[in-house]
Amino acid sequence: MTPPISSRRLVGLALALAAAGCGRGPARVPVSGTVTLGGEPVPNGFVILDPDPAGGGDRGPQGHAPIRAGRFDTADGGQGVSAGPVVVRVQALGPAAAAYPQGSPLCAPHEVRAEVRAPSTTLELVVPESARLKAPPGGWVPP
């Protein structure tokens, strides 16, 4: 004879099945590429990828990746974004300083629009020299 299933087990099984179906949003697509400022590789910073609903993009999750030596890859320390039109925001940072442990700002945040396609996308992000910030006399100080 098979022992009866307890109500605790039934509740646990129901919760496990519900959790398995939750949190499944759009698939994330890995995005990688290069970032230059005035023709030079950006040494440090980050890239943010937001789905662009204005461009007909999915309202899925935001993607992000650190910039290291002019390169970024959401599969290396970041997260991909859902396929479709995206708004890409670049924050270029220079060497770390006491006031800016993550790096001093090299440019104002730069924004471009792009298309992300599965199975992966490679972008070449070019920040114009005109976006470069000039260090104030005495260098960067905390805000």
Structural class: mainly beta
Average pLDDT, to the nearest integer?
A: 83
CATH fold call of the domain at 31-129? Immunoglobulin-like
Shape, per Cα inertia axes? elongated
Number of strands: 8
Order of helices and strands: HEEEEEEEE
Chart the SSEs and their pairings.
Elements: H1 7-21, E1 31-37, E2 40-41, E3 44-51, E4 63-68, E5 71-73, E6 84-93, E7 110-116, E8 121-127
Parallel strand pairs: 1-8
Antiparallel strand pairs: 1-2, 1-5, 3-4, 3-6, 4-5, 6-7
Q: Main attributes?
A:
143 residues; mainly beta; Immunoglobulin-like
Describe this structure in words.
- It is built from 1 helix and 8 strands, in the order αββββββββ.
- It has about 140 residues and is mainly β.
- The chain has a domain of about 100 residues: Immunoglobulin-like (Sandwich).
- Strands 1, 2, 3, 4, 5, 6, 7 and 8 form an 8-stranded mixed sheet that branches.
- About 5% of the residues have low confidence.
Short description:
The protein has 143 residues and is mainly beta. Helix content is 10%, strand content 35%. Strand 4 and strand 5 form a beta hairpin.
